[in-house]
Design goal:
Layout (H helix, E strand, L loop, with lengths): L4 E7 L3 H16 L5 E8 L3 H11 L3 E3 L3 H4 L6 E4 L6 H10 L3 E4 L7 H13 L4 E3 L7 H11 L6 E9 L16 H4 L3 H16 L3 E9 L4 E9 L2 E11 L5 E8 L4 E7 L8 E8 L2 E6 L5 E6 L10 E4 L20 H18 L7 H20 L3 E2 L4
Bound molecules: alpha-L-sorbopyranose.
Alpha-L-sorbopyranose (SOE) binds next to helix 8.
Length: about 375
């Protein structure tokens, strides 16, 4: 029996557009169930660039006006991979046009925008997916199973870092990810959002936090992204950086656990160091995106001579998603986190089942992000309203 098809309309086409498009094109290879995404149209303002992206990614057509995608009956899902300031307008318009919505993180510029996005999908009977792909690394899914089963016991700590270094050069230009009116926040919303989401996914709700932020390089030449995390300088003018280069956070969780978080783009030598360690009364786990198949596990009840962290390669058939790909030991990569996420989401659409991270999760994440900025600004602890 052929799988139901879901027409995809994508708005944007740079780094995340490439990662999402690849995932859509490869899903049928590995996921016989669920739905089959069809790359119907991609939209972007620069016609030559979006035409090239349509050809490279395999979209049937392209548009320079994103609203044209909403009018198409052959498009079921709108995938928003644009800068953050556009998310709310596009997601609400897509929901009102009866389209399901995939939105890259961070969901919105403010909690208020996120609430309007969440309400729009509910009111129009469609779904919203917030693209926190790292939840869908098999090792992270297995970590979730270990914690949920009580194998680590009561959780005391999560310490999580997201360390990058791609803007340490003072001559790296003032790209959209460094301009508040386009991105909202800097390291916090771009990469801090990932580790805060993982903490909520794995440990529990954050009830109170205190944070501090720093901008190390305050003036940069003007310029724009040119693909991936590369950029080009445009002319000789400079501009002011008005977002954080680094953010540090202390947090309390609803189950009594403590959280320590760090997000920075100035950790030289760390290219994409998304890492956490969780300590419970019965054991600990460690994960590092740059070695994403491996989960390091310490169990208190190991016999005395065998105490210590063991390294699990989460590619055994018992591990989440492992049976979708290759035999044990044949590792998978960054792009597969998007495939696992989208395959699971599309299956939930076809089966009419709830799925997370949805836009409700997005609102909860935005409440944490907003609390971080408030705390850093006021230099005080901030409580987070629990819905
Ligand atoms: C840049 O920091 C970036 O592309 C983020 O925007 C992504 O969310 C992250 O997964 C990789 O780094």
């Amino acid at each position: 029996m052929s799988k139901p098809k879901l027409g995809i309309g994508m708005i944007g086409y740079q780094f995340m557009g490439k990662a999402h498009s690849h995932a859509f094109r490869d899903l049928d290879f590995f996921f016989p169930g669920g739905a089959s995404p069809v790359l119907k149209a991609i939209a972007g303002r620069a016609e030559a660039a979006v035409r090239d992206a349509a050809n490279q990614y395999g979209f049937e057509s392209y548009e320079t006006d994103w609203r044209k995608l909403l009018e198409r009956d052959d498009i079921d899902v709108i995938d928003i991979v644009t800068p953050n300031y556009l998310h709310a307008e596009m997601a609400i318009a897509a929901a009102e046009a009866g389209k399901h919505v995939i939105c890259e993180k961070p969901m919105a510029m403010t909690v208020e925008e996120a609430i309007r996005m969440r309400d729009a999908v509910k009111k129009n009977g469609v779904t919203g997916l917030l693209c926190h792909n790292y939840r869908f690394a098999p090792a992270v899914q297995y970590a979730k199973q270990l914690i949920a089963s009580g194998r680590l016991g009561r959780i005391y700590h999560i310490r999580a870092q997201y360390l990058q270094d791609w803007i340490m050069d003072p001559n790296f230009p003032l790209v959209w990810r460094l301009r508040k009116e386009v991105t909202g926040s800097g390291a916090l919303g771009d990469i801090g959002a990932h580790i805060l989401d993982l903490a909520r996914f794995l440990v529990g709700e954050i009830t109170e936090l205190t944070a501090t932020m720093e901008t190390f390089i305050k003036t940069r030449p003007l310029g724009e992204m040119s693909g991936g995390l590369e950029a080009r300088v445009d002319g000789s003018q400079t501009g002011t950086v008005d977002v954080d280069d680094a953010t540090a956070i202390l947090a309390h969780f609803d189950n009594g656990a403590l959280g320590v978080f760090e997000a920075t783009r100035f950790a030289g030598g760390n290219r994409n160091g998304n890492r956490f360690e969780i300590n419970g009364e019965r054991g600990s786990i460690r994960w590092d995106l740059e070695n994403m198949n491996l989960l390091h596990v310490y169990l208190e009840d190991d016999e005395a001579g065998l105490q210590g962290f063991r390294t699990i390669n989460c590619t055994e058939t018992v591990h989440p998603f492992a049976d979708r790909y290759w035999p044990a030991g044949h590792i998978i990569g960054y792009e597969h986190t998007f495939m696992n996420l989208f395959a699971s989401y599309f299956e939930s659409i076809v089966e009419g089942k709830p799925f997370q991270p949805d836009f409700d999760e997005g609102v909860r994440n935005e409440r944490v992000l907003e609390a971080v900025e408030t705390s850093a600004q006021k230099r005080e602890w901030v409580a987070i309203p629990q819905e």
